[in-house]
Amino acid sequence: MSNRPTPRPPLFTALRYLALGIGAFIALLPFAYMIANALKTYSETVTRVSPNPFSPEFWPAAPQWSNFSEVWLGDAFAHYFFNSFIISLVTLCGSLATSSLAAYAFAKLRFPGKETIFSIFLLTLMIPETVTLIPNFLVISYLGWTDRLAGLTVPFLASAFYIFLLRQFFRQIPDSLLENARMDGASNLRILWSIVAPIGQAPLFTVAFLDIASSWNSLQWPLVVVQTPRWRPITVGLARLISEAGPQIQLRMAGALISLAPVVAVYLVAQHQIVDSLSNSGIKG
Predict the structure, then answer these.
(1) What digits encode the pLDDT tens for the residues 144-180?
(2) What is the number of structural domains in the chain?
(3) Taking the C-alpha atoms of 251, 89, 278 and 165 in order, what is their torsion angle to the nearest 10 degrees?
(4) pTM of this prediction?
């Protein structure tokens, strides 16, 4: 008796792809609206208005690429973009280092109170960010880190969620593989760097993407910590642009696209690793 799965009828497959296509269209419609308005003139954002992307009124008569240069060169938007790049890079390096080390310890090392400590880590995930906002700000103010790179990065150099995600994957690595490395004289750091990290590229890419997206899109904390343009990130610059541009929707949309582009680019590069990580890691059990 054959154990081969019964093929699904063509109608079911067609309906599934139709549903996925409709969902993708709905998800992409706001981005299409953003792109269309970013390329319009101010008058077109008022006169050429249509919710239908298949209508000529939805798109600009002639693309105005100068909107992007006007936003980029105005109000130090390029400086804010560079600030966000530095903040995201520092936070990413710190998060990967602390998360991988802690996840390896919780997954493969034995020490007293390991399960209790890990449970406490998980409990912190239930604490809203707004609850810790004031205590974190008081600590940063006491250390004199307001309007500094340290104030924007140090509080986010570790994440309980990233530790949990990596731990779930590291637990799947056979202990015999690590024991053989120990018998050859490898230290835990060498094992983590030479064996665990290469095997765990997919979840590490996922952590990297999530951390970059979180750092790049952070708004509440920079508004509290940063009072001068020196380390103002692009999210704060975009908020200022939206308030200062007034009715000029084309400049708002152009600024939003500039702010969104790096995160989309990182996702396109790492999408296969992210999908593999979420599919094969121990997050599901």
Answers:
(1) 999 999 999 999 998 889 999 899 888 888 888 888 8
(2) 2
(3) -130
(4) 0.85
